[in-house]
Design goal:
The structure is a single chain. The protein is an alpha+beta fold. It has a six-stranded mixed beta sheet. Strands 10, 11, 18 and 19 form a four-stranded mixed beta sheet that branches. A four-stranded antiparallel beta sheet has the order 14-16-12-17, covered by helices on one side. Helix 1 runs antiparallel to helix 3. The longest helix has 17 residues. It is globular, with a radius of gyration of 23 Å. Bound molecules: zinc ion. Zinc ion binds next to loops.
Length: 430
Amino acid sequence: MTDGLTRTARIARDLIRFDTQNWGGGRSSGEADAAAYVAEVLAAMGVQSETFESAPGRASVVARVEGEDASLPLLVVHGHLDVVPADAAEWSVDPFAGEIRDGLLWGRGAVDMKQMDAMILVALERILASGRKPRRGLVIAFFADEEAGGAYGAQWLVEHHPELFEGATEAISEVGGYSIDIGGQRAYLLQTAEKALQWILLRARGTAAHGSQHMRDNAVTKLARAVAAVGAHEFPVELTDTTRGLIAGIAEILDVEADDPDAVAERTGTVSRFLRSSLRHTANPTMLDAGYKHNVIPSVAEARIDVRPLPGREAEAIDAIRAIVGDEIEVELVHGDIGLEHPFGGELVEAMTAAIGRHDPGAPVLPYMLSGGTDNKSLAALGIAGYGFAPLRLTPDLDFAAMFHGVDERVPLDALEFGTDVLEDLLLTY
Ligand SMILES: [Zn+2]
């Protein structure tokens, strides 16, 4: 305690100090040390957990905690232990030192999502230490491999150990519950939806030839045309229940018309980058591959496109891309996953909203759709409805959207306390 840090800050800092970088494709520093640490913290509060290794070093920790009311379905409260890689040369601090500076905790994972891992642990610890129980039973899970889609973490556990989640119907986790500034009004974004993901390959074929020839059947030229067309395409705004609620809520706070959703979302400052991409399908060319010699026209050229369709409308987004690139380009699905959308209503949403309200009275809570994905997609295979609720009260000067996977990731220490309080409240009341 001599360092003056709160329990949540200390655990978050300790977790940041474990290098759990995940490069994807199975290449990772491994989560085993962080998992052992988390299991120890749980054991110290009297919670027995199990550790599962999907592959050497790829460890996830799961524990069940008894609730006050055994008749209620269980709630999964989950976090991930891995982080995206950090290039120390780009950072102002060592990304794995867990430095405290200017009232903030700095480091890779400070917002994605070792802060929430710590908040979960401390909220539970406080409840149990005071001799109470959470209202409903909990499945507490700390997963490996979220940053690469969960094949070695949540997805693996769901496939190999579904019994761990038996009795659970809902889940809460990352990328929601944080505050944003809307025209001077603090409001919270509760994540009720996640976009789908479709990674596609565009392939153009042509005639292989010497680079000095007059050649119109050029695979590189055809591919370049297709890539430029996809990259320049503006998908129209198409609201879902979630984004309709979001835009209406922002418009109400600003006292403006909601008829131009893009313009309304734009008024949320830096977070508008998150929000505008949730109003439509998006498709971004990300990789190009063609040719092997400067004077040889190759017969094949390929590009990779990261397509993020609105939930449940994957096929429609891919059809739109087929229409844009035309018949001469082959379109191949490389990897895909589902989107999610849950109602902004019901008892869990009401409980989360009420918990925020008790700790930040009067601040509106709005639904929003994540343009990326979380481990909630894996849990959906078990019929578990996952929401994003890692509560943080933030100041408008922090570019929170840029923190995710960004350089100089950091979180205010007082936001960690707020989040722990709100989570404790939620687990006691829901
Ligand atoms: Zn994350």
